[in-house]
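Reviewer 2 asked us to include a model.

Predict the structure of this chain.
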Amino acid sequence: MRVTMILPALTEATGPARRPVKYALFPPLGLATLAGYLDPDDEIDLYDEHVEPLDLAAMLGARPDLVVIQPYITSARRAYQLADMFRAHGSYVVLGGLHVTSLPDEAALHADSIFLGPGEDTWPLFLKEFRDGHPRPRYTSTLRTLEALPPIRRDLIKRHHYLVPNSLVVSRGCPHHCDFCYKDAFFEGGKSFYVQAVDDALAEIDRLPGRHLYFLDDHLLGNRRFAEALFAGMRGMGRVWQAAGTVQSVLQPGLLERARDAGLRSLFVGFESVNSPNLPDTRKTQNVGRDYSAVVRRLHDCGVMVNGSFVFGLDHDGPDVFARTVEWAVGAGVETATFHILTPYPGTGQFRRMEAAGRIRHRDWDLYDTRHVVYDPVGLTPGQLENGYWRAYRDFYTWRNIGRSAATHAHPRERLRHLAYAGGWKKLEPAWDALIRYGRVLDALPLLERTLTAFGRHRPNTAADAGTSIPADHERPAAGAVPRSPQGGFAASGAAPD
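Predicted model (structure tokens):
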């Protein structure tokens, strides 16, 4: 059987404001995971449109028997175009992922079969029925497990296109249920958070070359028993890695230290609003009453960098939210930041409420990219929100503020690392673009590994590092959300600074 698998490019990855390096970070693990279920004699081609142009004439001319496309909300239009073309040429087309699960009737117009929810239970069933000649038009996941997951087909991934090709996902979903989260709709009808067997996760790590790893899990620290066993198995491997976690998990005694000893050097954390009333409004209960300044101190004292996430446009935000957010992040010593405009995604409680209130401005999914205002804000005009979003990026990444933020560290070595990491990520765009253009972005990985290796030297923790007191509003960011690039199963996630 000839199979073609495609990750279509996000709209924001093709526009004038794109940062090429942001879309050359991670390979399409979701499709490579599904490819693991195919037979050894199947002919498989895997394409990631973010890093390579599609030769559609050749692809259509090959007349694949099966075409698998994984759309995300801002790649839905492109995904549907590709699906329609392949169907017109006689290929059987399937679609799955977050957007398909949220809007199945829309997706079904462009596919022979669609998949709702994770694909680990439905994909093997589909393959059997497809080979037998009677596939169903719709498959809905109900059994949630990562047992007997075949090895990811990393041989299909063109590693030289990616800065961090050693990405992996060892869990699915998240134990929390924030009102804005895209993932709750995706996991409806079954478990919304489950993990791989520790031995299987360690075996996957063993298969990866080099030192650097990037865990794309929504919340790697979400199951403490699993996380501690994983970190125990990773100790002594000599790995350095990055991941995502919550403020609650950072403040748990002992867990962060175990992660650090296993090689954690950078953590994506949601520091997302300077207005505390946004927390209960969005059901972000895991953040209520937490001291966010203590989170940054605790991470830094463990030698772990902070990639902070911030969302603008929640109902308690006013025109001052942008400057206040940047000032907090700079003053706290956050190394890198990812800013977003609040985006109500279809399938979420937030979208349903805003739609019922007449606040959804349109359904042009191309603009649901966290860079455009697609709803009516409460305390800001759409123009103020978009302009403030771009201004926050400019202000946070000025050399002056990078220097101020680096100066919050106690030792010159830490300040230098901060300057090198934050400045190198945001200020060397021409160099990144050249590496990507000539297919040499992987050449920068040793430099990333050396920079991350320099972290991990820690100072003794103070009593305040485990604090849970409620700080003043100017100290405590609050709720917000942005889904990350779909990567595992029929969807999983990852996070990187913008």
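The CA atoms of residues 52 and 273 lie 36 Å apart. The chain has two domains: 2-140, 158-466. We have added this to the supplementary material.
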